[in-house]
Each structure stands twice: as structure tokens, then as C-alpha cells.
Records
---
Amino acid sequence: MEQLAFTYEMGVVAALLAFTVFLFVSELIRIDLSAILVLVMIGMLSYLPGLESLANVNNLFDGFASNAVISIIAVMIVGAGLDKTGIMNKVAAVILKYGGRTEGRILPIISGTVGVISSFMQNVGAAALFLPVVSRISSRSGIPLSRLLMPMGFCAILGGTMTMVGSSPLILLNDLIQTANEGLPEGSKMEPFGLFSVFPIGAVLILTGIVYFLVLGRWVLPAVPARVDGTTAQGTQSYLKRVYGLKAEVFEVDVPADSPLVGQILADINLENNLYIISTFYRGKVSMVQILTAEIAAPCRLAIIGKSKVVHSFARKYGLHVRPELDVFSEEFATTNAGIAELVIPPDSQLVGKCPRELQLRKTYGLSLLAIHRGEETLSHVETEDHEPTAIGLVEFKPGDMLVSHTRWDNLTRIKQNTDFIVVTSDFPQEELRPQKVGWALLFFLIAVSLILFTDIRLSLCLLVGAVGMLLSRVLSIDEAYRAVGWNTVFLLASLIPLGQAVQNTGTAAWIAQQIMFILDGWPLWSLQAGVAILATVFSLVMSNVGATVLLVPLAVSIAVAAGGNPAVFALTVAISTSNSFIIPTHQVNALIMGPAGYKVMDFVRSGGIMTILFLVVSLTMLNVVF
């Protein structure tokens, strides 16, 4: 192999690489701005004598139209479309139902599911689709989003090693093997890999990632406070206690068919028992908007707001069963769907002088009135710290009354247009869900996935088919699609693409690879394979994993043949190791989750450093066990 000379251009590229890593780790400026700065520097340096090969300035911004960047934009739009129909809410509810609300149970379900999905579609697509699901799970369980997104993202990357269509390097590998075979003697030619040839390796890697975060997650994962879709909405219990002194919780209670409660009126039950029945579940239907003069029909379930002692006493009196946690009502009381709202009655409101029962407040406005704050006094069915319970359903409204109500956010959005109320609460998700569009959303999602799995059409075009379909069917408006795109992620990735091209085009990557291989010359076979894996890992951090694979597979095959190793295993080592991208957020998935979770680069260095070592050890071990 001819020795490559280290050139002036290589030195400049190496300096740019070091500067980029310094900016990322130090975070002197925002990471996306750092990437844009590096892009500008590459462009300007290319005009200097001797640096013309650094970048083709006419194609400097081609990264913004690259397959990877357009794919990310499209998959964000597709994910937002699915989320708009409420599907992601239902997925989150199912995960919470089976996973409970503890990190130790939720984390493996989310991470394992995303890992399996990413084995058949691009890992960034799987991560983007599950991003709103994890956000909702975080808000409902109280687990910080930062403790769930990194395990999900890492497992999405690991899932790409489970099939030969799970990542671009593995898709490309068989073509590279075919090309490499042309220069090999007959006895050394490699056989192409089957679809599931790498399944055992990928499965063990996903399992390793899950176990890693379960065991060490408390130390390596940051705990950025959880947020609810960018709002500061609070749970019903904590809000009522903190603001109004209402010592109340939400309970789910089973009412058997033979209960003496059957036939009694909701309003009378509330008043006589110092509690508040806020929702019912009867004949498979949850209803939060019913008339308080309605009678109890059983068997049914009730969602009751009240003091724990009062509710359990009430249950014993009428032969009811209090469930340990919310089940059928969990979706209705999720802070992403509903919560506590404060509304003021203005002087010119038509509601002045009328009582909630007369107005049928629940049925007409979708407001479940929990308390009326009047001056220094709080009136409520539920006993407060300073006052006895009051039949607020019969209290006539006065100008200036503050109504504390539980309502769905879509109801509150409509009420904001009603001049009879002044909506004080502003920090709630003011988005309109479109469940009637679920069919269209699923149709175009399935079309996009089918195109990805069963055709050779370019990934970005497949995903754009789904995105455009959702826009044309009005699952999303075009303005909502623009808002759904994380433009910081787009600029981060697009701006780094020229740096990766410079590393490759100037021969810097080939020179680095050659120096390492010369150092490893004569070492045992296993150390050569480890060196190839480490080299592929490093290259995947500073250039595209496809570029690293194209560059290193021929080199790895040559090393294997010279050392008497299996060239196919060495080639596969490269393709799998280019997925070992956890230390800095240059991988598409890491860039995607960085903003929503509030991660810093050092969070990836800390968590990803250990994951990188585990990946190397496990993948090399499994490669030699399986092959």
C-alpha cells in the first residue's frame, strides 16, 4: 500500500475538526450556531490558495438538500400529522397501562419498541415518530423527558444493526462486498449477507443498551425538569392543594350493579358526601360532560375528586371498590389533554346572577366546576382548610368570581372566544386535535413505510410522499408543518455535511486510516479487527456513516486477507461500527433529541462514552461468536 503524504490541506481539515469538537464540548455558543460557523469557515477557506479542494463553494450548501436532511424534515411532518390525530396519545396510554409510571418499567418498553421499529426503517424516522409519545409519557408519569429520550435515541441507533436494511451502511455493504470480490482470489471471495444475518448482534446490542440505562441510568442521565408540550400545566391534585388549599385527589371507583348508589342523583351524592364526581364510565364510554341531575346507572366506574379518607369512607358505605390508580380515566386526566383552568366572570357576563346547575355548566361549556374563589373565600364541594363544603352548583355567580374548573384543553380553546368568560389560564396546549383525520394520517403513513420497505425509491422521497399526503388531506396545515420541523436540528446536520466531505475529499480520512493500520501491522487478528472497529467509530463521528463505510470496507478487506482473517467479518465490522455514534450529537438521532430534552454536549460525552465502549465490546464479541 502506497504511503500517503500529509498535506497542507489535511492539516487545515484536522484543525477544523479539532475546533469543531472544542466548540461542541465547551458550548461557548449554541451547537447549531457552531455548525453554521464551521460551514462558513470551510467556504471562506476554500477561496485561499492551496485549499481549493477543501470544498466546492458552488455546492457548499448542498447539505440542506441532502437525503438525510430532507428525510428528517419529512419524518418530523409525518410524526406531527400522526400526533395531530391523537394516535400518539393512545400509544402513550397503552405504554403507561402496561409499563406503569416508573422509569424502570417504562424505559425498556419504549426503548425496546423503538429499537425493533428502527430495524426495518431509518432510525431517525423511528425516533421522530416516538418523540411525541415519549413527551406525553413524561408529562403523565412525571419522569423528566431527559431520562427517557436518550435511552430511546440510543436504542433507535442500536436497532439499525438488527437487519441488513436497518441502516444505510448495512444496506450498502453487500454492494461493497461484490465490488471487493473482483480483486480477491477465488478462495477468498465473500458471500453476501442475508436480511437477518446480523439479527443476533443487533438484538444483543439493544438488550445491552436497555440494561445499561436501567443499571447506570440514575448516574449517567441528566434530570432536566419535565415539561408538558412547552407548557407549565400542573396535575389536578398538586394545583388544587397549592393554590386553593383543596386537600383532594382523583380516584377511580367501581360501582357494582347491586350498589345502593344506583338511582341516586350526581349532585346530591356530591353534596352529601363532600366529594365531586367529575366523570363516569358506563357501557364502554367515558363522559366528562354530563348533567349533574343525572342518576347513577351501574355497573359503572366513577372518577371522584375528594380527600382520601372521605372517598374510602364513601366507598365502604356504598360497597364500592377504589382502584389503586387511574385506569379508564387516565387519558381524560392526562395533562396533555385536560387540566385545571381559571376563568373570571366579567361584569357584563350573561352568567351573572345564574347558578351552575341552571346553566348546565358541564353540558354547555364542558367545565367541571371544582371551586369558586370569591374575594378571600374559596367555595367548594370538597372541604378546604378554612371552610366547610358548599353546594357550589346552587351558588349564583357574581362579577369577579374566579371559577376553578377541570376541562379539556380543546374546550378551553373554544371558551376563549366567549365574552361571558375571561380565561386567565394561558399555559395550556392550545392545539386542535383532529381525530376525524386519523384514517388519512394512517393511510399516508403506511404508504410511506411500504415505499421504504418494498421499493428502491430514495428514502427522502418516500417520506415526503407521506408528508405531502397528510398536507393535501388536511391532517396538517402547511403552517403547522413548518412549525413541526426542528430547524435547529436541520441546520446542525446540514452545516456539518461539508466538514465530513472535506475530511474525505482532501484525503485526511484515508491518511488517518493508513497511519492507524501501519501502527497495527503485525498485531494479532483480534486486535486488527478491534482497530478497524475503533477507526469506523471515530470516522462516523466526523463524517457520514456511509462515507466512512465506503472508505473503510476496502481497507478492512485488504487487512483481513493479508492477516489471514475472514474478510466478510472485517467488512461487517466496519458497517456495524459506523452505528457507534453516541459521544457527540452529530448523529441524526442525537441531534433530533438534543433540543426537546435540553441535553448538553457533555451529557452525550458522559452517557455516550460508556455506551461506545459497551458497543465495541459487545459487537466484537458477537461478531466472532456468530461468524
---
Amino acid sequence: MRVIESFDDDVRVIENVWIPMSDGVRLAARVWLPVGSADHPVPAVLEYMPYRKRDFTRLRDEPLHHYFAGHGYAAIRLDVRGTGDSEGILRDEYLAQEQDDAEEAIAWIAEQSWCNGRVGMIGLSWAGFNALQVAARQPPALKAIITMCSTDDRYADDAHYKGGCLLNENLTWGAAFFSLNACPPDPEIAGEPWREQWLERLAHNRLFPALWMRHPHRDDYWKQGSVCEDYSAIQCAVYAVGGWADGYVNAIPRLMAGLQAPRKALIGPWPHAFPHAAEPGPRIGFFQEAVRWWDYWLKEEENGIMDEPLIRAWMEDWIAPAPRHDERPGRWVAETEWPSPRITPRTWHLNVLSLGDHPDPEDRMRLRSPQTTGLRAGDFYGFGAEGDAPMDQRTDDGKSLVFDSDPLSEPVEMLGTPVVTLELACDTPLAHVIVRLNDVAPDGASGRVSYGVLNLAHRDSHERPAPLVPGQRYRITVRLNDMAYRFAPGHTIRLAISSAYWPIIWPAPERSEITLITGASTLALPLRPPRPEDDQLPAFGPPERCPIPTHTILETAEPERSIAVDLTNDETTYTAFGDAGDVGGAALARIEDIDLTLGSTMRRVFRIQEQDPLSAEAVIEQETRFQRGDWAVRIDARIRLTADAEHFFIQAILDAYENGARVASREWNEAIPRLLL
């Protein structure tokens, strides 16, 4: 990767700037300014999120924001209220208060002597969410956003629920947020009140996974911050960026179809990561692409970016499943409209164990998957770490009903949403259906292309779910994740259907037998004909960035990901361990320029017995440390989730230590009704 160390205009970094809110709370920002902005004001780019601008994201922030400042922008990295060095209390994600604060911060930025009044927002994940949410508020100074790995629908496509099923990511992300919310401000920024602010954060911390589990349906709680409720509210320009390996990719095509504002989309093979450094690649010059966007919308430079196609996407080719891929084979393709009139559905019929061009007479196949189906799924969204991508699917295929096409005689290229329509009946009022689209190579290896899940109680509505009538026949639709994929000649298209997907989703309360009606069920794939203009798409520049701050790794966090089976009780344990911060994969590292040692690790353990969904258990443990001189803070958190047929049970312990002495200890023990989950 090319490292840019100097620019035509020098960059001045202000370690902390207080942005006052109307209620007296001060938000903490780190600011990068072109030196020339003192005499010639420039546009500003804001990134706004809770992940601690001073320390945990410092190694990521510096290369990005210094780069923007070097290209003539004021770059601002702002901590959300109650996080990092910002004052106040953070009570939940994506609250209206967060968006109110953002509007005030944008107005403050636009009025500064170094800003010309034009502001953009950029962000990945949380910061990408709030860029969309704030854009819907229409602050006058906000002219454009870049939203990465985010969503327009907080219920349908976030880390909590998918298809009406409870994601275990709700617990994993909730545990991370729980720990993050317990971290103190830096005494060098907050001064003497740091300890009082820290104790206040600890006293008001919430067991976030439980909070989210008390909203199992798509109610007003989830509609707040879901911009799909009114796409027309967003009037500034939107650049939506993501990757096929991310959990949030479905939002990008919806945004392109729903927004009326100027918009563009870029989807690579990437996970939940910036495109210049993501694995799998190809990695691209994303910083240059972002500057092109800002130059057009914030400096009004005619550079042709809006003359390019609406959607640019990486068309993936087959690659043998492996724990990690440096590169994903494929090519860039583009569409000028979305939905594209060029793309049409191609229907296959689910016949007995086969995909056919025509339906056979109706037949019945029974499905009752073991609870361990899904162990080769990888993570809900990966970050490019070893083992977080889906592995060879043959083990999970063997626990599912599979329907194979004949080996293909010519390539089949797709872009969009696979849709599966199933005729079925079930012997229980609650059940899950999981559908995977796989590519089977001539040697038998099975690679997951896309998947979808559905809580059958949500077959008609996420807002008003209803139990099944056992034995009654239903026609249900499962929408799989959007994808761009090319099946090669000689390969087989496989559809695999199961009733469990552990540890991606929490199991239904009892084992169900689903009767699938073959001959009446279908798979529709979005076929994309070749587009000759794709060969003339302009190439992205090579990846580049500014230098990363000097840091020293003191303790490594060797990644662990394993599956163990206890043959005495038929229990399978899935364990994952690694760093939970953003300090180069370290369990503990020293950031030299702020004289701070910090680190965080997380262990995730998921247990279940082969035939008993009520045996499911998930445990998340996280340790976070800060140290400077004789000041040392440690936060230990543990959350455990179990369930019976009627309730979820969630227990948590949070212990906080200062210089080895425990200063706070809190426990939670909650029972949450299973409302059609």
C-alpha cells in the first residue's frame, strides 16, 4: 500500500476540540486542518461514532482524516455523547438525541472560521448508520455523505434480527457495546472530573442485548433511525459502499431503488471493512474515490464521478472455501439503473432432490435438521479474520434438504436478490427455515453464495407475526442476501434448506418437522446478461493512505476458532477468541504519541446439543484495559444467554477496576418472554 507522507498544504492536528450542545453537554472532537484554511476556509468532512477517537480507533482515524485534510478538507472525528471523551450518558444506539447532537455539531462546524459552510459525513458501520439518519434530518450545511456497511432498516438488516429470527450477533455486538459503554474518558482530556464521569457511565450502563430482545417485532423502536420509512427525507447526495461478505449489503440496492437524491453505489467482495485494506480483496484506492466524491459535491469540481454508472459491483467467481482469502476472483461490472431492466428472474423448480426447468408432480419431503446445522457458516459479518468466512458447506448440506441442478453447460451470471418460494407445512406453531444458495464444484466442494432465514411466524409481517397452524399448508417467500456471482460451466447450482442455523441464529423453542412440497416450490435467480461496457470501466487507483501512528504490540491475541464435540452428551461447543479493539490485532499495545497502553479481547462460546434446541447457551467474555503511568483501568464483562420454551434468560456481570482495586460491580439477571421467537 502506498503511504502518503506529505501534501502541498501542511496539516495541523488539534487533539481535542469541545463542541458545545444546547443542553450544556460538550462533545469531544479530534480535528485535522489544512494549514491554509486559516486564511482560506475549506469544506469539512465529519465522522461521528462512539468508538473512541482518542485511542481505540486512533490507528484507523489518522490515515483517513489526515488524508482528507491533505486534500483540502477540514476533517473532524467526533465521539458520540457519553463515549470516548464526550460528556453525557449514552443510553442506546441511534437515539433521536444522537441525531439532535449531530445537527448541532454540523451547524457548529459550518460556522467555524476554517470552514466554508459546506459539510459532508462519512462512516463505516455505526458512523454509516448515523450519516443516513442525519441526512434524513436535512441539516442545511450537509451536502453529501458516504455511508459504508450500514443499513436503511434497523430491524430487517442490522445485528439484532434477520428474517424475524434472533441473531446471536445481538449478544456478541451487545456485549461489545456493553463493555464500550463502561470505558472512561481519558484523564488527559477530561481532566479531574474523569473519574466522576466514569462512575456515572458505569452506574447508567444498560444490558443492551436484553433491551433489544424486548423488541422482537418491527415496532416503533426499530423504525426510529430506519430511513426506509421515508427515503424522500434524504435530499443530499449519497454514496453507499459495502461488500458481499458484510452483513449489511442488502441495504445498498434498496437505497439505490428508493432514494430520489443523487446517489451512487459501490459493492466489492469485502467484509465489514474499508475497501483500501479489506480482505478478501481486491483492495482499491478508496481514499482517492472518497476525495473525488467530496471534490464534486463539496468543492463543485466537475470530475465526471456522477457520469459513471449508478451501481458498480464485484462479480464474484468460484474460489475453493478456505479459512481466509487474500483475493476474491472476479471482475467489476456496472448497471446504470436500479432496479435494472436488463436483469430478469430465471426460475428453477424444486423437484425431488433436483432443480429443474419444469415442475414434476407434487411430492413431499420431510425436514428436521440437527441443531448443529450451520457450524460452517462463519460469522454474521466478517472482518477478514481467519475463519470468519463460510467454509465448505458439505457438512451443513448433509444436514439439509438439497436440490441440485444438472452441471451447467454454460456460465450463469447473477446480480440481485435470489428469491425462494416454498410450499410447506409444519407440525409446530413456531419454526425456522434457512435457505442457502451454494456453488458445487466438480470435485464436490460446496461454497456458499448467499443465504436467507425466516421465522415462519413472520411469513406475512415482521410487525404482526402469527403462529403457524400445525399441519396447514402455506406458501412462503424467503429473500436471500443480494449478491453478484458467476456460476462456471461444469459447476452445479445447489439450494440447501434447513430448519436450524447455529450459531448464526438462536433456535426455535422445539424441534419441528417441516414437510416441503416439491414440484410446487421454486427458486428465482436474477440473471444478468453480459454488458460489453463493463470492459471499459475506469480502473480504481491503488490503495493509499497516510502513515499509521507509531505503536508497539506488547501482547498478541492469537486468534482461536474451534469446534469440539462431547460424545458423552452429544454437545457441540463453538469457540472464538481474538482482539476486540482496533490496535493491529493486539491484546495489548502502546500508542506512543499519547503515552497510552490499551487493549481488549473477546471470547465467544456457543454450546448446543444435537437434538435439543433448549440446550442452547451463548457466553461472551470481554476484557478491556487502559494504562498510562500510575493510572490503570480494567473492565471485565461477561454475558450469558439461555432459554426455555417460554423465556430467554440473560445474566451479566460487569466489574470495573482502578489501579487493581474494584470500584464498581454490577449484576443483571433478566427473564424475557419469547414472543414468537
---
Amino acid sequence: MGIKAHELSLSHLITTEEKSGMKLKDLQLTFTSTDAWGLLRKDLTNALGISRAKRFLLRYGWNCGVHEARILKEAIDWKDDIEWLIAGSKVHHLTGRVLSYPKNFQVDMEKGQFNVSGYWIDSYEANQHLTYSGKHHEPVCYFLIGYASGYTSECMGKKVIFKEINCKGKGDDHCSYIGKTVEEWGEEISEELFFFEDTDMAKELDQMYKRIEQQKERLKIGYTLSQNLTQDMLLGKGLPGFAETIGKSLHCPVLIEGKHFEKLAEHGEIPGIHKYMSVTNIEEKLKDLAGNSFVEWSHKDKTFKLLTTPILIESKIFGYITIVIDESDDFYKDLLERAAIISALHMQNERVAIETEQRLKGELLEQLLNNKEINRKEIYDRFSYLDYNLSTEHYVMYVVIQEKASAKEIDDYEYLKIRNRISEYIYQDFLYEDNQPLLLPKLNCIQAIIDKNSIDKRYKSPRHFGEQLIKKLGLPNVYIGLSDQTKDVSDFYKKFQEVKRAVELAIWKKTDNKVVLANELGHLTLFLSARDPEELEAFASENLKTLIEYDEKRNAELLHTLMQYSQNEFNLHKTAREMCISISGMRYRVQKIEELLETDLSDSNSRFQVQLSLQILLLLGNVDDLTIA
């Protein structure tokens, strides 16, 4: 009866008799020093280079495996062929090469199926590599891989390839392997098969020469691409220029997109291909992008592959570059990474330039909206130097972030976050307009001007624009005011004062509508154009002086009653109902008001003067506790 693999021992291989010429029971096997092996590996690597040394050791291991499989088949009476197959790993252990520990073993020798995996414990080859060469970036147990592949292929009668997955020689905790037939590996093993090919040295040298030439050509392409991209940036060609340079260097279509997936630049002559290149097709995969990561992807019904990398500024994604590739290759990744770095530098420069320009425009906007005595020509010219056209009609916008009475106070940081959010929405909305909005953020508000044509093209009306902005923001404590359109540079100050007062009035009245149009003030806008608002205040205060003083002395509410009375068109019964007082009580109050003001409220002129005075005080903010119906 034949033996099993686990029963194999050195006694089957070695005799104790010392006789010249005898070698492990005439099996043509010898013992060698592991240190000698380590030195041999080192010398081979130094003389041939790591790639050729790897191939040499793999081929040597393969031949050793095939030879030992054959002689063990003849010399040992095995129980069956599967035991002969397993004996290969036992020989590893007996000869001190490694202890093989299987994890998965799916083998059918009759059907030619082979799929195994496991661990190599205490690999002599990994230990010697660490001793003489240090850690490597890939697995280093070349002989073991070759031996396992050769031994198993001889047993199976078909080509089996082992691949090392983890290796102590590259810093892993252990060595592990997977072995499959070439058919079961498929394309995954195509690169490794090269090292097992039995070609003559001349052919190998020729292949190496071709690879060197290819590498030289790639280095030339990489150098030229970097040089051209740098030159494009210095010449101010921007992203369209970058896309063209990348496309011509790599002979492929290119698409550059922003962080919101908007198309920034493209290059290529294949009609319609860029819609398939957009990262919107792989939006879920983009969440995993970090550092200088890449995403390789494709479409099920398309033959081309795509490679995407992010454009990063301060570890934040500001865009994406996508190219079409023939095959997965680090060469493309390296070049695409360079292109992304140059694009990031360009975007950063643009950001700095824009921020500088915005700061200058902000200073000019401050003068335009808040300085009544500006020099019209000077301010117009200075805006023109910054490529902004003030001669077109504009809307003046005033956005106020209002604190909630029931909430805790908003700190400066919270204000900043809300302001930035509002600004980003507005800028993004009019990103491609010639006259982009100009914004002047302050603590709890934003002052801005927006070209009338920009709003008219995208929205039904200024109110519609304001309502859509409120909807996007989703913030209940934001008021947006919009003026009438300006006709001249001198209008901006006046329109801003109007819209500012309109918003303040809406906040004071606690209106539900968060979008306020200045023209809703009606004839009151005339007051804001007065040369001396102090005169208006004096006029109103003089007319209502006795009533205000009476209220202050007696803690009465006659001024409040008069406001309600005027708001209800001087209707006695309606006002009494709203104020929840009796008709007689209401008549008494009206009579007292007429006495104090020395006026007759049944007279239309007297009514108008009273209403005018009340609205002026209301408009100028001199009334703090009125509730308007």
C-alpha cells in the first residue's frame, strides 16, 4: 500500500551510509546553505537588476519543482496522485525552505481543476532577502513561487501558476499565496506569465531594449507635457489650453469639470464622447476620492476605458480631469496627476486673483452704495478698469440675517457661514454672466448689485429671483430686499437707501413675506430722496408732539390708537373691534386725540397730514412699539 504525503519524512530521502557520490538516496537532490542562497540572490540582483533576477529565480524554481515532482513520482509509492501532489509542500518543509499551511484546497486532478490558497510560514527566501537587501515594494519569494508552479504543473499535466499575495519581504506580517490554472486566472495573471516564459537571452535583451526605448519615449512625453502645461499657465491659456495640451500629448479626448460637475474645458474630435466622460456618470464613486486617488471606469456598452483624478486645493476637491485610455497603466496616472497639479495651481491663482478683484470691487461697492457724494465719472472709470460695466440697469439687493427672538444669539462665525452660503448661491447662479453680481458682506447683512439683464434672463421678475433664493437657502430668518432698476450711476445710493429702509420696515412689521421690493413703499420713497431727512422728522414730530408727550406722561396708548384708526381708514367701529374696546371708549379716544392735536379727523386734509406724519416716523424708525394691522 502506498504512503500518504504527511507520512513522507527524511528517511524516505536520506540514507545514513556515507559513500562518495551518493546524494539523498540517489534522487539527485542536494542540501545547500540558506546564507549561500541569500548571497546568490543579492549577487543576481546586483548583476542583472531586480526584474531579470526575479525571472531567473522563478525559472530556476520552476525547473526544480518539475524535476522533483518527476523523481518523487518514480521513487515513492504513493497512495494516489493527490498525495503525490500534496507531497510538494511537504518537501518544502523537510528541506527547510518553508512551512506551507493551506487555507483553501479545491482540486480535481481528473477534471484539471486547481484552486488553492494558504500561508508560507518562516520563508527562508523572505528572511534572506531582508538580511541582504532590506524590504522590497513587492513580494520576493521568487523561488518558492516558481517551485510551487513547476511542481504542481507537472502533477496536474497543465500549467498552474502560483502568485504571492502577502510577503514578509515587503513588510507584511506573513507570506501568503494563491495557485490556479492559467485558465482560472484569466487576464489577471498575464503580467506574471512573462516571467515564466522560456526565451533565449538574446530575445530577452531585445525585449528589455524595447522596454527601455518605450520608457525613454514615455519620459520624453512626460517631460514635454509638464513643460507645455507650465508654459500654458504662464501664457494664461487656462483650462481650455491645458485640455488641448493633454489631449495632443496623449492622443486622447480630455474633459475638465468643476466641483459641481459643470464643464470647464474639453478636447477631442470624437462627436458626443464628452457626455460619456462626465463624472456625473460615476457620482457615487467620487465620494471615495481622497489625496491623489484615481478612478478607472467604463460603460457597459462602450469599448473605451476612462481614468479620472480630482483637482485638489488644500485637500479639497475643486474639479476633475478625465481622459480616455486604452489600458490600465501607471504611465497615464502619472501624467494625469501632473496635469491635475498644474490645473490646481491655475485654479488657486485664479482664486487669489478673483479674491483680490472682489476686494477691490468691494471697496468700490462700499463707495457706490454708501457714499452720497461720489464722483460719478471716477467711480464709473474705476469699475471699468476691473472689467465691470456700471452703465447697464441694475437691481440693488440688501440681504439681512435676522436673529430669532426665541433662539440664542448668532455669533460672528454663524453669521460668516450664512453669508458665505448666500454668496455662493448667488455667484453660482450667475456664474457665466458677463456682469457677475458684486457683493459686499458685512456682519449680519450683504449689500449687492445685480445686472438687470442677468435676472431678467433667468427669472420672471426680481421677486421670483428673491423667492427662489429664499427657497434654496431654507433659512427662516433671512430677509431679501430688491430695489427698482437703476438708470444712472447716481441712482445706486438712492436705491440702496430705499431698499434698506424697506427691509428694515418689513422686519419691524414682522411680515411673513421675506422678499421685499422697495417699490412697495409707494409714495414714501419720495421721503428717502429728500435733501434733509431731519426736516421730515421735525415735521412729523411737531405734528404729533402733544400726543407723544401725553402718552409718555400718562403711559397711554393714544398714538397707537391713532395708528390703528388711520390704518382702518378712520372707521370707528372697525377699529374698536380690532382693538377690543367699546364704541364709546373709542369715541372718547378719538375726541381726546383731536383735542390734543387741535385737529378735526373728519377733514380729509387733516387726515392726510396725520397719516403722513405717522408714516414718516414709521419709515425713519422713530416708532418702536407700534403694531400695524
---
Amino acid sequence: MNDGAESAAFSGLFRQADLGLRREMDGAAASPGVGIGPAYVVDRRRVHVLHTHIDRDRVEAEIERLHEALRACRQQIEVVKSRLPHGEHRQILKAQQMILRDPDLIQRTETLIREELANAEWALTTVTDQILEVLGNADDNYFRERGSDLTYLIENVLQALLGEHGDEIDPPAGSVVVAQDLSPADTARMHRCQVAGLVTGVGGKTSHSAIMARSLQIPAVVGVDDVLAAVDAGDLIVVDAVRGRIIVRPTPEEVAHFQAERERHLAFEQKIRKEHAFPAVSLDGLHVRVRANIAISEELDLALRHGAEGVGLYRSEYMFMNRDTLPSEEEHYRMAKHVLRRCAPYTVVFRTFDLGADKPTKLLELEDERNPAMGMRSLRLALRERDMFLAQLRGFLRAGVHGPLAIMLPLVGGVDELGAGLDAIEEARDQLATAGVAHADDIDIGVMIETPAAALTAEHFARRVDFLSIGTNDLIQYTLAIDRENEAVSYLYQPMHPAILRLIKEVAEAGARNHVPVSLCGEMAADPRYTWVLLGLGVAELSMHPSAIPVIKHIIRSSKTDDMKELAERVLKVDSASEADELVLATMRARFPEHLRHGCSEGEGGP
């Protein structure tokens, strides 16, 4: 927005601020940056649906009415998609269209219409509520946040069934859009509106709207409780998507402060984005391969656009979610083939399905466990469900002829379990050879180091595999005996705990002795506070969510190996996690203040 437009947008708003009290509200920073502007409030109410019965001879007509509404909504999305440039946002809208073709959703709705003689609106609402309940109870944030996407899509279908038309949002340039939630289509429309920021009452960092906000580089804060009750149309709002908060009706001094911070933030963004394609090579020549963690294909373009040197963790378990049948060997093959061709010439590391615990699936009968994080999950489950495991492995091996593919086994507890996993890979290879099916013979195979047992015996793993990858999310959980999904003990989740640092060092040294690369793919990799410590401990590769890559690569290019090793050595000598945090934060904040403002979790590492 130019200076004249900005002045006009702010004109008179301070008089309005005098009429209401300043209010500061917390949320989650979903898309980094600072936005300032008048509020454009989107307050939608859920469509009211009546439960009526239809005559039996009206069943087929009612089903056709359902399909017509679904087609109309898919076409609406197609219109929005056609207005956008190519990129990740188009892929997300395509995913929305696929949800509206989901056979499980459609078949279950048709069944209710046929068996209960329910009208299409009630049948669709009933099925949707059942799906939303499952998503809402999931431990994984990714699945909980899919609920908001589904809710908006179904609202549009219901409006089509009822002959209503949802208002298309059309915010003025320079405004801040405030809503209880926004659909990806809503967010995509802002591409042409040049809004200053987004604020929602629900959602999280992995919701599709958050992903699209990052893709479109719109500062966004989500999960702000009761935001619609606190904001009136036209209220001046500061969207502080660095710290994860908003300020409603700020003071003139605050506006001036955040205008300066926004300009500094934008200048830094432009600088590091210009360099995103450069390799992460330190000032003294250390090349660190920086890869992306992805779970769905929509994230692939974003990863490459942010400078990822391939994929260090492809979470294949998401293929098993929200469906009634197991993915076939052919589906695994086609998915992996697409990803490999898109990433060539870089390597893609496919983790075999990490199901169980916080990633449940209705495709398997899993007993309720008192402690599922330590129960039947990951490789243990794959070895039990051998046919399902072999189908995935055969698909991966077949896809390996299309690009450099690696297979990674999750949560390997010991050498015996590793041997069983390697035997399964060999069995899948023999099955393809016997059938005369083309497949890759020479692929890298690695393991995730996620338990203290695996870290302490990494030497034994390093003699048998091609790479090791440290999964710090689970390693911290298991080492410190805390449930990372339990908010009551979240304060004990300490990446800088001396035990964690020593285990990372142990694994890195085991890899170095055996000439096996060691990567780290947990959330620690994406946090700029920890870059020096991890590399100083000997980690050779980092894999992270795509939006973190430019900041981490820029830190590496601005650093020297000796400085990183020195910090790691100092941290290893302290007695507690709090001491280590203070030391690391002070060092990194002094050297990389803007990087920490861009890359830390909200409230952590900021000024």
C-alpha cells in the first residue's frame, strides 16, 4: 500500500479509538509480519437446516439435488482458482474441490437419504458433524484444523441446496480482515485485495487458510478467542504476527512503533527471499543441506519456492487418513512418482507410515491403550500389518526409477527391529523382481532416532543403514517422560535439556565415525535459536517446515563453523535447560535479532 493510501486509511481512526478502549488479544502467529489497518469484519452465521422427511419416490431426485449443489460449489472454487497465478494456493483450492468429490462423504450422505428418507440438507449436516467429531478428537493438530476447512465447504453446499448465496468478501486495500474463520477460497480472494492482515477466532498454524496466508505473504494471527465480540467494523487494528497478538484501537505511539517494525520486517523478508535459492554454505565453506518436511502435495511447491534441497521427511501416513479403504500399491507408486519428478534432481525421503498414537486411522483395528505413545504404532504397527506395509514398500520401490528416493523407518527401537524392517524392504523388492516389475535396486535406507535407546545405540544403526535422522519431537517426549500433547506438562518440553543435547551429540558422532550423514527433522530444526547449537553438535543436515527454510539458510550463510562449535561446547557444560536457553538466546539474539523475530514461536526470542 502506498503512503497516500495508508494515510487515508488511518485518517480519522484515532478519533474513533478515543470512543473505545484499547485492547490487546493473544493468538497464534500463523503467517509472519506486521499489518496495520481498519477492520473489515466478516460475521457469518451457520446455515439453519431443517430435518424433513421426503417421499420414497423423491429419493433419486433428492440425491441429484445434492450432486448439483456439490457441482455448483466446485465450480465456484474453479472460478476463484482461475483468477490466481500458479502456486501453492491453487493447489489448496484444488484440494478443496477434491473434498467435495470425497466418496465417503457423498456415499454416507446418499445412504442417509435412501435409508432414513432424510432431506439432503439434514443428511449432509449429519454426516459432516460425524466427521467433524472425529477430526476434533484427533490428537494431531493437522487433523483438528481440517475441520474448519470442511465446515466452510459444507456451509457453501448447504447454501446452494437452500438457494442462498454466501457473501463473497471484498475487503478494501489496506484493511485487516477479521472473522471467526476464513475458508481457503476466502483467503485466495485476498490476492487481488492487498489486505494488510488477517485475524481469525479459530484455526492454527497448519490450517489451509494459514498455509495460504503464508503463501500470499499476508500477516496473520489465528485462534484469537472472542475476536468478533471485541472488534467493530472500522476499528484500527495492529496485527503483530511476529509475537502472535493483535492490538485493537492502538495508541498513536503504538501505530508509529509498528509502522517502523513493519518496514524493517518487510526489508528483511525481501533480503532473505532474494537469496533463497543459494545453498546453505557457511562463511568458512561448511555446506549444510536444508530440506523440507511435508505431509501433503500442496506443500511441495512452497518447499521448492523457499529453497529446499529436496524433502527430508515425507509423512506418508496422511495417505491413510479420511478414507474407507487402504491405499493400494498403485496409489503409493503414483504419489511417490509425482513427488520425485517434481523434486528432481533432489532426493525425497519417504517415511513409512507412522500410524498409531496421535495419528489414528479407522482403517485398522487398534485397541484403546493407556499410553498409545508407547504402544502399537509406527514400525511396530507396520511389521504387524505386513501386507499393508509391503504394498507401500513396493509402491515406493517402483517409484524409485523416477528419481532419487530414500526410505526411512520410524521409531526403530533396536537392531532386531531394524533387521525386521530391512527384511520387509528386501521382501518387497523380491516380490517385484519375481513379477518382472521395474523398480529401483539401489536406494538409501535410513532410520529415525526418536528414543533414548536408539540414540544410545546409534553406532549399531550407523553400521547397517545409509543415513540417520533425529526426530526431536518424540526424542524429547520419551527422554524427558512428558506427553507433548498434554498442556499441563508443556513447560517441561525443553529442547535445550542437557540430556537432549548429549543424545544429539552421541548420534552425530556415531554417524561421523561410520561416514553416515545425520539429519535432524524435528521442530528444533526450524527454530533459529537452535541452528548454531545443532550444527555445532555435528548435525550435517536439517529438515523443516518450508516457510522456515530462508531464515535458517541465511543464518548458516552468515556463520562460521568455529562459532557454532564454541556455542555447542559452552551449552554442553551448563547444568540445566534454563541456563542453556539463556545462553543460546543471548548469543543468537545479539547476532541474529531479525532472524529470531521471524522464526521463533510466538513470544519466544522476540524483542
